[in-house]
Every structure is written in C-alpha cells, then in structure tokens.
Amino acid sequence: MKISALVLLVAAFAMPVSPAFGAENDARGPVGTVPDAVAAALAAQTTAVQNDSDQTLHAMHDEMERARTRLVLPDADKPFFIQYRLLDLDVRSVTASFGALLSSSVARERVMSVDVRVGDYHLDSSNFLSEDGFQGFLGSTGEVGIDRDYNSLRQDLWLATDQAYKAAVTQMSLKQAFLRSLTKPPEIDDFSESSPVIKIQPHIEPDWTSRNWDDEARAASVALKDYPQLYGTRVTYYFIYATTYLMTSEGTTMRTSTSLASIEAALDTEADDGLPLHNFYAVYTAKPGELPDAATVSKALTQAATDLLVFRAGPLASDYTGPVLFDAPAAASVLAQVLEPSLSGARPPLSATQQYDSFMERVGGRNEWSGRIGTRVLPPTVTLVDDPTATDFQGRPLLGAYDIDDEGVKSQKVTLVENGMLKKMLMSRRPGPDFQISNGHARSAGLSDPRPLSSNLFFTSSAALSPDDLRQKFLAACKDDGQQWCIEVKRMDNPALAALRQQDFGDFMGELGGDIESGARMPLSLYRVYVSDGHEEPVREGVIEGLTIRSLRNILGIGNDSTVYTFMQNPTDGLAGTALGAFGSAQGGIPSTVVAPSLLFDEIEIRGFHGEPRRLPLVPAPPLK
Amino acid sequence: MMKSKYRGRISLTAAALLAMAWTCFAANRPPQKQADPAVLTAMQQELDRSFTTLSKADPPAYFISYTVSDRQYADVSGSNGALLSSTDDRGRWLETQTRVGSYQLDDTHKLPNQQPSWTSPGTSASLDDDIPVLRREIWRETDEQYRAAVQALIKVRTSQQVQVQTAEGAAADFSHETPQTYLGPRVEISVDRKPWEERVRRYTAEFSKSPAVLNSIATFTALATNQYQVNTEGTKLAFGQIHYRLELFVQSKAPDGMDIERYANFDWLDPKDAPDEKTVFASIHKLIEETEALDKAPLVDPYAGPALLTGRAAAVYFHEVFGHRAEGFRQKDINEGQTFTSKIGQQIFPDFISIKDDPTEKSLGGQMLLGYYPYDDEGVPAQDVHLVDNGVLKTFLMGRSPLINIPHSNGHGRRQLGYAPVARQGNLIVTSTNTMTDAQLRAKLIELIKQQDKPFGLLIDDIAGGFTFTGRGNPQAFQVQPLVVYKVFADGRPDELVRGVDIVGTPLVSLTKIVATGDKEEIFNGYCGAESGSVPVSAVAPAMLISEMEVQKKETSTDRPPILPPPAHDPDAKGQQ
C-alpha cells in the first residue's frame, strides 16, 4: 500500500447505472445478522456475474469480522462502527495543443480508506478537528494492489483498520477533553442510524479503444493554428471508469460501477493593453463513445477562439450599478456558487481551533440558511429541488444522478425551498440542528469525507417569462434606471477549466480570495446591452460584487428557458460545499448539474478594471505554421 | 494527514539525469553529419529570435538557455504479493533560464535571509515534432522567465544599496564557460512490463511469508532520458542516458513501537545485466532476516568509543557529512555552516585519506556508478575533481556560481527537473593509503576497545541518509542515522545486533579520527535530495575504523505494533484463502 496525492484527488463517481447492467441485488431494510446478509450478497454476486474473480468484498468481509470481534486496546472501547471504502479506477488522459500531442497516458489504481469509530451514535470519535492526534506509521488511507486479490488487500486492510482504530481512540479522548471545556456541549448526535444496503453490480471493463483518442485530440485542436493571436491552448480528453466498494459493520455491502468522459479545453491570450483573457470549452458524457467527434469539437473550439478574439478587441468594463441579466448558463453557475454553502443541514465539525471557521469564511463556505427553516429565503414563486434520482431533463442527461450515496444511503429527491420558503436541507448521516436523518446526499471526491452536496439542482418559478418578455423587462428596467446601457452576463468563469498554467489559477484565486464571502463573482463573458436599439458590446475585466445568497430573495424576472448546466464540483477537501467548490474539472471533480433559467436582477454591482496592466511580451509570438 | 509509506521511490517527474549510457557509439564511430533533431531546431530558432530582442531590452538579458528533457519510462510496482501499479509513458519537459544584469551581478544573486525569487519550474512540451508548436511553448516560457528575472533584479539592486555585502557575496553570480557542442545518438528503451509484473508480485509475496514484515514494496523502473540543451553562449548538446532500477522496501515494528525499515536496490544499464531471481531472492531473505533480528534486538545505551564502518556505511557517511559541505554554492550563503569555506590548503583529514568526485566514471570494478553523466545540467562537461589530496582540502564542487578564488564550474551543476541547478555530488570516491584486511581491521577494533577500556565497540553496517530516501514529510537529507549496528565485544563473545542508534556530537569530528581503512572499495548508489531536488549519485569508500564515535538512543514512535496478528499468520482467523 502506498499513497499518491494525485490519486486522492480522483473522485468517486456517482452516476445513473443503466438497466442494461441488470443483475442487481437490492435488498433494503433491516437485516438479520450481518454475516448472513453478506453471505447472501456474496452468493448473489457469484451467481449473478459469471467469471468474476474479484475478491475485494471477501477480503473486506473477513477482515471486518476479525476487527469487529477482536480489535480492542486494553482499557479502551471497542469500535462501534467500521467502514471500508475502496475505489478501483481506470483512467485515460490525452492532451493536445495546436494539433500536437502533449501527453497521452493510461493508469489503473486502487485506493482504500478505513473509518473506525468508537463511542456511540450520540457521541463518537468523528467530527472533531484538533491540532494533536494520533501519529501512526501508516495512514488509514492509501493505495492498494490492483489485482483485486484477497491476501494483499487483507494485509492492507488489517494495518489500516489498526491505525484507524488507534486514531479513533486518541481522537475520542481529545474530543471528550474539549467537550468538558465547553459550558454547554452541543446536543446534536454525531451519527444517524441508517438501514444497511446490499447492492452488487457487475464490473464494467473500461472501454476507450473504439476511437483513436490521440488522433482526435490532435484533429480537434489543430484548427486553432489559424488563430496566431492565441498565446496558448490545451485540449484534454479525460476518461474514468470507477468501481466503488463500500462495506460497513452495520451490514452495508456495495459494489457499483460508473464512468465519466470529458473534453475540456482552454485558450488564452492578452489584449493590446496587456490584460490577459481566456475562454474555455467543456463537454461531459457518461461514456467515452458518447463524446462529440473531432469535427464537432474542432468547430466548437474555433467558435471559442473567435469569441475570445472579439472580447480581446472589446473595451474595458467600467464601474456599474444597475439591472443585470444572467443568461441561463451564467445563472446556473451563479446559483451553484451562491447556494451550495447553504444547502447542507449537517453540523460543521467541532473545532478546537478557530482555523476551520476562518477558512470556511474565506472560501465562501458559511451556511446562511441554517436555522431558517420555515422562513422565506427565495422569491415567493420559486421552488428549489435537488434530485439525484432524475436522470434527464427534456432529454438531456443529468450527470449528477446516482442511486446510492457515498455513505450507502439510497438517494432521495429533496424539495429544499417551496414557494420561496425553506423546507428541508441536504443531509448526510451527520445530523444537524434542523434535521437528523440522512436523505442520501452524502457525496465525496475520491475517498475524502462525504458531505451533503447537491446533485441535480432544479431552480423553477411559477411565474416564468418567455425569453422575449424577460428581455423586454430587462430593457425597461434599464430605461427606468436612466441607463444608456445595462449589463448582460452570458457565461461565468471557471478557473479550474480556464487556467492553462498553475500560476494563472493562483492569480485567479488571489483576485477572488477574500472577496468571495462578500459576493465577488467572476463572469467570463460580459456584454453591454444598449437601451436604444438592444445591440450588444462585449467588455473585458468586469467583476460582479456583492452577489450573495441574500441577493436571491428578490429577483426581478425569471425566464422559462431552463437549461442543464453540467459542472464538476471541486474535489479539494475543504472546498467541497463552498462557493469555490463550484470550480472543478473532470480530473477528480464530482459530476453535478444545475437546471436553471435566465435571471434578471434589479441591482447588481460591477467593478471595472482599476489596476496597472503588465506590458506585452517584448518578443512577438512566433508563427504557428 | 495521509502519509506515504514508501520511501525509496524515484519520482518519475523527478528523475533528471540518470546514470550513464550515452552508448559506445560516440567513442567508436566518428560523429555522423546529420540534421538536428526537430526539438533542437525549434530551441535554436527561438533562442536566436528571443536573444536578438531581449539582449537589447531594458534591462538586457545577457544569457538565455533552454533545456528539453525527453523522457520515456516504465514503472512496475508490487506490494504484499499484488501488483500496485504498472505504467509506461513519455513526456517532454521544457526549462528555460533567462538571466538579466551581468555575469557579475544578476537576478539570481542570493539575498541574505530571503528566499530565492520565483522561477518557473518549466512546462510540458509537445511530444510531436511540430516545430511551430514547440516554439510557441518556448516563447511563452521565455517571456515568463524574463519578466520574473526583471522583477528579481530590481530586488537585488535595491538590496545591494541598503545591505552590507559579505566577502564571498562579492563573487560573480555566473561564470564564463567554454561553449560545448555534442550531438549524440538518441537512446530508447523497450520494456515488456508483463514479466516484471509477475516478478514484483513474487518478490513481495516472499516478504509476506514473514509475520514480521508488515508491509513490502518492490518497484522496477526503466528510464531513458534524451536531454537537449542550447544557450546563447553557443552551447548545443544532445545526449541520452538509460537507467534500470529495482528497489525492495520493507517495514516492520519492534514490540516497543520503533519503526524498522530495510531497503535494497539494484541498478543497471543494459537489460541483460538485470539481477537474476537468485540474487534478488537472496537480497529479500537478507532483508527479512535483518528485519526479524532488528525487531528482537535490544536498544543501545549511550556510548562513546571505537567504531568500524563497513564500506557502504562509510560511503554514505562521507557523502552526508563531507560531500554536502564541499558543495561550492554553500560557501557563498551566510545561512550555511560554511565548515570548510576558509580551509582550502589545510589538513582536514588524516593524510592517508584522499577524496575525489568523478562523474566521468560509468562503473567501478564492474559495478555501475549512478552518479555518471557526460554534461552537467548547465551544459558543462563532467570533470574529475580532486577535493581532498592526502588529507588536505583542495577545492569545492562547482556549478556556474563562482567563488572568489574558484571562478569556473567544474561540471557539477545539477538539478532535478524543474529546479535551478546548484553544485552537487556525482560519484564521490574516497581512497586511502593506510589499508588493512578485514581481519586486521577487526583485530585493530578490538585492540582499541581494550585500550580505551570500553565494554564493547560498534560495527555499523548500514546508514540511512537523505541519500536513498527522504522520510515522509520529514526529510532527513542531512541526517545520519545508522540502521544496522552491532556491538563488538573484546572478550570474543559473538557480535550483538542493537537498535535505535543515533550518532551525536559533530559527525564531522569523527572523520578526523579515522585510524585505518579497509582494502576494498564498496559502492552505494542512490538518489540524493537537496536544494536542486533529487539527483542520482554514487558514493564509494573502503571500511573505516574510527577511534571515537558517540551514539545515543534515538527517539521512538509511541504507536504500538498492530493489535491483531497479520491475517495470513493468525491461528484464530477464519476465511483464509
């Protein structure tokens, strides 16, 4: 067993599993004795799937039984909960630039994570952050053998369980000491009970052989050679097949398989005044074969390049306060950034230091809806639903769908806000002040701790306007406000996709960091729309200010043009569930969608560019052909 | 946080110049007139174009260099009887250096108490030989580096005005060197990973037979690097090196919680020289035996007295306590110990000891030397440098950062991909004129024990350094920690393995107390981590008898051994396969 940091960023995928896989054994409800249920499930596995030599669940079962019955330190509690998670990943990645291949790789990896808790459901060793803790010689998380064999996995699980148990015992005593220092310890339970789930699906073998992806990446990107004004381009094809294993001492036994395919491209340049600008393109499908062909991608990239050059020639944004119209894809991205931190009903971890809270503040992770159940949080016509069971919207697939969440709880449709009133929150098995029981929304990137996150988030209004009516309303509002022109946002930025280089990503985060909690948001394409004749003019470098969840209580107009916005939630532990969590890429991101219409706001602030641009390269770009 | 349990691994993004193999072609055949490889053409075109403009800019760039490392690798790893990973890949990495100012004072000038200014670690470059696309990558990196260098130079000039300069700080920032041209043939490897997948499974399964082995890893790596370099002084180089390596690593825990780790490695240049199964299994059994013995070994008590280092241990010891202190750039930095800065011409070792660093040697006594390279990472030919002659310090290892009295590089500017080169060791070779046979050395050790009236002496068989592995999150680059130590008794009792030894005092002092050496050289091949990253090195030395060395108990982990027995060795377990 060993660890690579990279692997840990590779996410678990939770996607709808096509009925064609069939042969599943879905036994819900209380189970008698755990070993019986597991034995039945394992028997089902062997009968349902021919030629399956996978020993993973056998090894997990045997080691868990040993730990459950015999793992105890003198003078310490026995574990009350043990959980094994394991990800089996096949990854293919191809990157090209201007028609030339930069990299092409195939990798196969397996990573496991062991969670052991002492205590009981009311008070256990989890959910506590402290600076001290158990320092073992091995972590409870790591890379394991890829043979799906029995012996090596048992050895790895044995050591990881031992380390996790010792860590839990240490953590429990630190937590109890901390609780004794509080005047009033929290009364919320640490962990909610949940019925075990048994579900074993057949393996899916990765299939990326049907097309020549190296050649497609070259062919898709070569057209950009016609745009010498572009400084750099990257087109990345990324495919992942993931089999997820989950076993708990409560009896949950799962093996599920999912896949994701993506094309993500970034292009950048500088305007004549030295200010950088970029554009990106992204498409996500469940399987590699469903991706658009090279000609289609090439056309889309050419369009992206053309758009970028139009913006390159545009004027700088000026400071502005007034009506702003967000087109549906931009509105969806804004909703993902603004709503996500407040959707979770789980309590935050107990923290012995203030660092956790201040970090969450900084990355826009503060929950504004906690404690507001039954109050109005959105306009009275709006309903907000998160539905991981929905697999498509008007024929377009919803990649945020899943059957069972990362804690082994069956996914549920949750109506969060009805007619503007906050009704429910997204729950994992970690209870919160308003709700105790999971509604199947625990999601995680890789093997990080699952948290309540959105899956397919639907924002709808009972008073939606047609696109024409909304635009008329927008122009009328501009006129009433005495403006010559108003601002329309067509797309929002995503630095995880747009940054060609690490330092660009750092610059972006630097620009946004600190302001994100006060509602700074980065648009990608910003237009002035003139009241006189409705014509549009692209502008550069504007930043939206003060767009927080409170801004959503009053929306001037809502369209009926809902579209599916697919995005990857950022896999970085700590960013999940924050405003920055909306910025991810296929490499490790959690597939999610927001289905939202265009939104018209009465008053939004845009800050224009006020800095000093750096000078252009002294040496002009070399020819591309 | 999560921790890697694996230590000795070559990071693939890291492996820079790997030992050897720019093949025999160069020696046997006259160089053929052939067109430059596309990548070199792109580099030269962009270099000429950039320098034309940037050398006239304000401030002017006075030196630009480009390096492209084209690496092809295969990596097969096993753990506890199963395959852990098996991959192969190819990548090109571009590094640019743009210096502004002058050779005397430029943007790289080290400022007291400040981190060096940011420089780009480089970027991946096109694998396809598409010259315009390669040029575009180079152009962009050059621009970034030039901008960063201009910023850095402003800081340097400001600091010069307000801060007192040290004597060595007055040395130039960059040395003038003769341009080099060499276009060698491209090297390639062709690796069938399947047999290695079976091998690493077998090797680690063998380890699992011992209940003492908690975890084992075996890793095979093959790497072919073709390095291309051009600079504005006229250097133009293309050369390749190939390296194969097998590493074995085991972890255990003594009953008191102390971590026990054993490691072995094999390095070779030609596939036919791969170690055979018999050799590898012998090594595995030795590691198991040592692990089991160390688990049971008693802890050592604080002690000062005579010690005998085997050749391999002595080689590592010299690398760590002398070699790093002989790296030239350290003499310029006031934050460094500068043990030897003013000691040139002085006796620092007994007069029978001489030390050289010779990266031009590919092998010694039929064994590969991992620190071989034809040109260093600043385009300077590797040179045999005599550091210590008959105990007298002669010079330092030099890259292109000169000292007042040593104005030129001696071909030791090295780096891991993405780092700026500094002076580093290659093949550090210690020789002696006062040699004894093993039996004589042992007799002499016993004599010293009696003379000093000590209850025992120490025999140090293996030493961990930053050398082969840096600890998890806790780099031990300059720590010297004996791993396999025996007590040797004067009264004829058999040697006793002990555990938990830390060398204390000033390690360097012990080197002045060398009494005699063995008559056989031993080689240690490993990766050494320091300021410019991890680079492949060798250290060679005979056994050393030291009249006084001080040791104490090392700190031990509080994490006890696992509560349950290993699953495969649990008499009460059910469900075994």
How is this structure best described in words?
The complex is a heterodimer of chains A (about 625) and B (about 575). Chain A has about 625 residues and is of the alpha+beta class. Chain A is built from eleven helices and 26 strands. Chain A has helices at about 5-10, 35-50, 55-70, 150-180, 215-220, 295-310, 330-340, 355-360, 465-480, 495-500, 500-510; strands at about 80-95, 100-115, 130, 140-145, 200, 230-250, 255-270, 275-285, 320-325, 350, 380-385, 390-395, 395, 415-420, 420, 440-445, 450, 455-460, 485-490, 525-530, 535-540, 545, 555-560, 565-570, 590-595, 600-605. In chain A, the strands form six sheets. In chain A, strands 1, 2, 4, 5, 6, 7 and 8 form a seven-stranded mixed sheet that branches. In chain A, strands 9, 19, 20, 21, 22, 23 and 26 form a seven-stranded mixed sheet that branches. In chain A, a hairpin with a 7-residue loop joins strand 16 and strand 17. The radius of gyration of chain A is 25 Å and the shape is globular. The two termini of chain A are about 50 Å apart. The model of chain A is unreliable at about 5-35 and about 45-50 (pLDDT under 50). With about 575 residues, chain B is an alpha+beta fold. Helix content of chain B is about 20%, strand content about 30%. Chain B is built from eight helices and 25 strands. Chain B has helices at about 25-30, 40-55, 130-160, 195-210, 275-295, 310-320, 440-450, 505-510; strands at about 60-80, 80-100, 125, 180-185, 215-230, 235-255, 260-270, 305-310, 355, 365, 365-370, 385-390, 390-395, 415, 420-425, 425-430, 435, 455-465, 480-490, 495-500, 500-505, 515-520, 520-530, 535-540, 545-555. In chain B, strand 19 and strand 20 (about 495-500) form a beta hairpin. Chain B is globular, with a radius of gyration of 25 Å. The model of chain B is unreliable at about 1-30 and about 465-480 (pLDDT under 50). The chains are: A alpha+beta (about 625), B alpha+beta (about 575). The interface between A and B is large, with 73 and 73 residues.
